[in-house]
Design brief:
The chain has five helices and two strands, in the order H-H-H-H-E-E-H. It is mostly helical. The protein has one domain: Cytochrome Bc1 Complex, Chain D, domain 2, CATH 1.10.760.10. The protein starts with a helix and ends with a helix. 29% of the residues are buried.
Length: 119
């Protein structure tokens, strides 16, 4: 079976057992970040709520720091087009949800960066 399939199955399991859940993730007044949070909850949370699939957890700033240093353009490109990480991890294009617009994907990236940036 496809690697993305197993990633999604594992992600759904992890969400069921609980890790970084929607209730624990910050809310912001900015409409763009609110939109990003909705996308995160409906798509990105599957992988970004647990350490087990290799995606950086939204509540782990240390995991995001080296990614954030690369700049938003790189983060957007990886989120939009997909990316294979050095440890064999996979960021599927549009988080595996082809229905997401470019703006929705970018809002989700912006939300995760904001949530993972130390106060």
């Amino acid at each position: 079976m496809q690697p993305l399939y197993w990633t999604l199955v594992l992600g759904l399991f992890l969400c069921a057992v609980g890790t970084a859940t929607a209730q624990e993730c910050p809310k912001y007044e900015d409409a763009h970040l609110q939109r990003g949070r909705v996308v995160w909850m409906n798509t990105c949370q599957v992988c970004h709520a647990s350490d087990l699939v290799g995606a950086p957890r939204i509540d782990k700033p240390e995991a995001w720091a080296p990614r954030i240093k690369k700049g938003k353009a790189v983060l957007y490109e990886h989120a939009l087009k997909g990316f294979f990480g050095p440890m064999g991890t996979e960021m599927p294009p549009r988080g595996g949800n082809p229905k997401l617009s470019d703006e929705e994907v970018k809002a989700a990236v912006d939300y995760m960066v904001k949530a993972a940036t130390p106060k």
